[in-house]
Amino acid sequence: MRIIDLTHIIAENMPMYPGTEAPSLRVTFNHNEHGFMETLIRFFSHTGTHIDAPAHLYAKGFTLDEYPVGQFVGKALTVDCRGLKKDENISMSLLEEKGSILNEADFILFLTGHSALWGSPDYFRDFPVLSHEVIEWINRSELKGIGIDAPSFDPVTVDEIEQAAGELHNHRAILRTNRTVLLENLCKLEEVGDNVFMLCALPLHTLNADGAPARIIAMIEN
User: Fold this and answer.
1) pLDDT tens-digit series, residues 5-40
2) How many Å apart are CA 147 and CA 51, to the nearest integer?
3) DSSP 3-state of 91
4) Most exposed of 57, 136, 140, 189 (fewest Cβ within 10 Å)?
5) What are the helix and strand counts (H, E) for the chain?
6) Strand, helix or coil for residue 113
7) Tens-digit pLDDT profile for residues 34-59
8) CB-CB contact of 103 with 95 (8 Å)
9) What is the pLDDT of residues 62-103, one digit of tens each?
10) Residue 60 and residue 111: Cα distance in Å, rounded?
11) Whole-angstrom Cα distance, residue 55 to residue 172?
């Protein structure tokens, strides 16, 4: 079995959604002075490769800790969106190209190629988002989650979090079902191939989690 890590590492100088404070990883105890090492870690719940819960945008939405752990494990399929032109949305035609195998997936992951810009200011610009028809299809499905190798399922158009929150139309449309979670800031989707594979997307297990960083891996049979 081949294991592919689809997760960006958390570091103090990592890219952050505009307006969000970067993480802090401060070594509080060290080997020389204390005989052991321990790090004080501080970050927001939607830092790096992470999962959005419905509670992110809905007061009565599920938190990640309310789901059974099986919500975060299942069969996944990647949809290649790298041929899209600038300002072109992800359409149903791209999903339909997968044929009947689409119905086997618990997770659909959208490969945009945008993760290649991780660390550049351009990472937060001009990535494709879902069309209305794709969102409607997702909401009719039994998908556990959808993922993307970009910073968001909505365009990043403003610098202030307070203003941006009201514009997350795609997030709101999907999360309102309490059925499908969102995986953002994935990487290396180009390595998983075209067939169904097992996905493990385990979020940090915290109480009342509106979202959480996650270690997300693809497990591919040889």
Assistant:
1) 999 999 999 999 988 999 999 999 999 999 999 999
2) 9
3) coil
4) 140
5) 5, 10
6) coil
7) 999 999 999 999 999 999 999 999 99
8) no
9) 999 999 999 999 999 999 999 998 889 999 999 999 999 999
10) 31
11) 10
Tokens for 72?
A: 């975060």
Q: Give domain 2-7+45-220's CATH number out of 3.40.190.10, 3.30.1020.10, 3.90.79.10, 3.50.30.50.
A: 3.50.30.50
Give the side-chain half-sphere CA count within 13 A for 147.
33
| CA–CA separation, 46 and 99 (whole Å) | 33
Structure-block tokens of residue 59: 């007061």
Q: How much is the pLDDT for 114?
A: 96
pLDDT recorded at residue 145: 98
Asked if residue 122 lies in contact with residue 150, where contact means CB atoms within 8 angstroms, the answer is no
Q: With beta carbons less than 8 A apart as the criterion, state whether 68 and 55 touch.
A: no
Do residues 136 and 92 make contact, with C-beta atoms less than 8 angstroms apart?
no
**Amino acid, res. 5:** D
User: How many angstroms separate the CA atoms of 118 and 122, rounded?
Assistant: 8
Phi then psi for residue 152, to 5 deg, are -165, 165
Q: What token pair was written down for 171?
A: 């997030």
Residue 22 · residue 6 · CB < 8 Å:
no
Domain ranges of the chain: 2-7+45-220
